[in-house]
Amino acid sequence: MRLPRRPRLLLPVVVALAAIVVLFLLFAGIFTDYLWYDSVDYTAVFSGVVVTQILLFVVGALLMVGIVGGNMLLAYRMRPMFGPGMFGGASGADRYRMALDPHRKLIFLIGVAVLALFAGSSFSSQWKTWLEFVNATPFGASDELFNIDISFFMFTYPFIRMVLNFLFVAVVLSAVMAAIVHYLYGGFRLQSPGVHASRAARVHLSVLLGVFVLLKAVAYWVDRYGLVFSERGFVHGASYTDVNAVLPAKTILAIIALICAVLFFAGVVRPGGMLPGVGFGLLVLSAILIGGVYPALVEQFQVKPNQQGKEQEYIKRNIDATRKAYGVQNAEVIDYAAQGDASKVNVTADSSISGVRLLDPSLVAKTYQQRQRIRGYYDFHEPLDVDRYPDGNGTMRDTVVAVRELTGPPPAQNNWINRHLVYTHGYGFVAAPGNEVDAEGLPNFDSKDMPVTGPLVERTKLTESRIYFGEAPASAEYVIVGGGGKQELNYPKSGGTGQENTTYDGKGGVPVGSFFNRLLYAAKYSEINLLLSGDINDQSKILYERNPQERVAKVAPFLSLDDNPYPAIVGGRVVWIADAYTTSNSYPYSQSKSLEAMTRDTVTDPRAVVPQPRDRINYMRNSVKATVDAYDGTVTLYAWDEQDPILQTWRKAFPGVIKPKSEVPAELQQHLRYPEGLFKVQRDVLSQYHIEDAAAFYSGQDFWNVPNDPSSGDRDIKQPPYYLSVKMPKTSAPSFSLTTTFVPRQGPNLAAFMAVDATPGPDYGKLRILRMPSNTTIPGPGQVQNNFQNKFSGELNLLGLGQAKVRYGNLLTLPFADGLVYVEPVYVEIAAASGQEPYPILRRVLVSYGSKVGSADTLKGALEQVFGDGTGQPVTENKPEQARPEGNKPEDSGAATDLSRSINAAEEAYQKAQDALAKNPPDWTAYGEAQKELKEALEKLKGTASTTAPTSTASPSPTPSASAPPAASPSPTVSPSPTASPNP
Question: What are the start-end ranges of the E strands in 231-353?
Answer without folding.
Answer: 332-335
